[in-house]
Amino acid sequence: MKTLTKIMAVSALSLGLAAPALAQDDPTQVGFIYVGSIGDLGWTYEHDRARLAVEEHFGDAVETSYVENVPEGADAERVLTQMALSGADLIFTTSFGYMDPTNAVAERFPNVRFEHATGYRRDHPNVSTYSARFYEGRAVMGHIAGHMTESNIVGYIASFPIPEVIRGINSAFIHAREVNPDVEFRIVWAYTWFDPAVEADAAQALIDQGADVIMQHTDSTAPMTVLAEAGAIGFGQASDMYQFAPAPRVSAIIDDWAPYYIARTQAVMDGTWESTDTWDGIGPGMVGIGEMTDAIPEEVRASAQAMVEAIAAGDYHPFTGPLNRQDGSAWLAEGEVADDGTLAGMNFYVEGITGDVPN
Amino acid sequence: MLRLEKRPAPSRAWTAATPVLAVVLTMIAGGIMFALLGKNPFEAIRIIFWDPLFHESFAAYSRPQLLVKAGPLILIAIGLALGFRAGVWNIGAEGQYIMGAIAGASFGLAFYPSESPLIFPGMIIAGALGGWAWSMIPAILKTRFRTNEILVSLLLVYVAEKFLASAATGFLRNPEGHGFPGSRNLSRIESMNNPELISGTGMHWGIVAAFIAVITAYVLLNKHVLGYQIKLAGQAPRAARFAGVNPNRLIVLCLGMSGALAGLAGLFEVSGPAGQISIDFNVGYGFTAIIVAFLGRLHPIGILLAGLLMALTYIGGELAQLMLQIPAPAIQAFQGMLLFFLLAVDVLSTYRIRVKKEGVA
Predict the structure, then answer these.
(1) Are B179 and A71 inside 8 Å of each other by CB?
(2) Is B342 part of a structural domain of the chain?
(3) Which of B55, B72, B231, B281 is the most buried (most CB within 10 A)?
């Protein structure tokens, strides 16, 4: 009996000693595939900043690699396979269109962990999904926009008519209307995530329609340049875009993936990684609010900051009733909060927005 | 002093040698670029050209992928080459590729969830027709109104892209997709799937079609009167007219063939490797195929080899990104050099370099 205990103790000890030694010899490999270029100053740029944060946090214990400009579809599947073959332990696939390729490759490499951004399919136990509650940031931007507009026309450069974008428009509109009952939204559908020329044209068209505050759900800084010339204001999207502060960029919604990427890498190293679905917002730090500049009056900055803190603390949900759908039918009763399922599949405007969701 | 002297006929030896020379020059210039980026140029070139074929852990996977990547390039380039030979410049294969995919996918999904074995053949026909119809727009505008087919076909690519976005977010959107863009995954529906025919080879119906297109084009150009007319119209338009070649008929035929082949490529891609109609379904095969057509000297066998080489630079380029962290734009520049050097050394096949003595003015 004593011997057995001794053996167990020794083996436990040797295991304990062996594990860090192994980790030192064989750093954890973390791969990233990006849909854009790391220099896009928007979506991919922020994912890559988070990758660098992972490198910095873990030092020699982790090695990262990435492939940029990977088209969604067959090419993604090939790059993911090559990444898995090259010995990756954990792979982040950072675009919605990588959903099917991620699950297909995950099936063939059960020992590699996959994390897919903004999707909903977790077909295998080695696939997780994660996304950010960007609509929380949109609520704050909408609040500022409602206060700041003098023409009462807020322009909105939308990308594609998908729930993520529609949710953002609704959230911004609700909070602009809340502080300014006369505000109207003009929405331009750019049908692109990143196309500086198209985005600049859209911004100009909105300014021509009288908009003096413009929000964007596209990733380039081109609209900022147009806003600067026209004397209008806007908000950084995905990244801070602080080079346009204090105006036209008066604040920003920042995607901050670093805390999540570090936590998930740590989980792989500790052997505690499990398939999960994460949808984090301002509270856990996945959505950041860029510094509000002096271009915003002090009391508006204070009320916006109060909203940020209330959302972060979980005291306030941007979709709280009473809210009606665009056609006037009741959606949320007084005090009722939207459930995640409805938000995830949101395909309707709230009451007060003019125009139709393109179909 | 060096002087260029036009050869009476293009040199056969140089015509065969220039693509190889262009590849070598690309390796040298690309190697210098990689070195300037602080990467080991020899390692980079080895990873791009050698590892996808022979690396112990990657090759087994990437060799079949060469076929998957080359298939649509070859299929489209064969069609384009026929037109280019006749002096009909279809630059919009990308749009025809998109429209073929949409037409084929729409045909299949219209019958969902039927399991009839006739659906996939029907999709193939619909795909070819979709690409063909899109190419008829520049064809008819050219024959009726003398518009420039280069501009019209190119600009129609952007129209097709908008139509694709609309399809992915609208009429083809997967009703069970939680409101996200993108159609149902065709490759997971038995009756619409374009499967891997022999496991582990990457071979699917699109690659079979590409091989058939290579052989057919070869026979057409060498044995058939239409091939003769195509070559004649390209080399001597006036002579062709005297020989009774109807230029309008040739324009419609050439654009139609290249459109149908591009449409087929789109259909085989959407039902196989890509799997679904999505907003960013097209990845530039239609444009890359132009490079492939010229790299292959507009010759069917040349195109077959050029398609495989181009696919190699894609797959090797991804590996180089992964292993050496070479930025993607540098890989694209590397591929661009290939066409650049090919066109540059092209001069050697049609011109002779003569050393002329200075003096006697």
Answers:
(1) no
(2) no
(3) B72
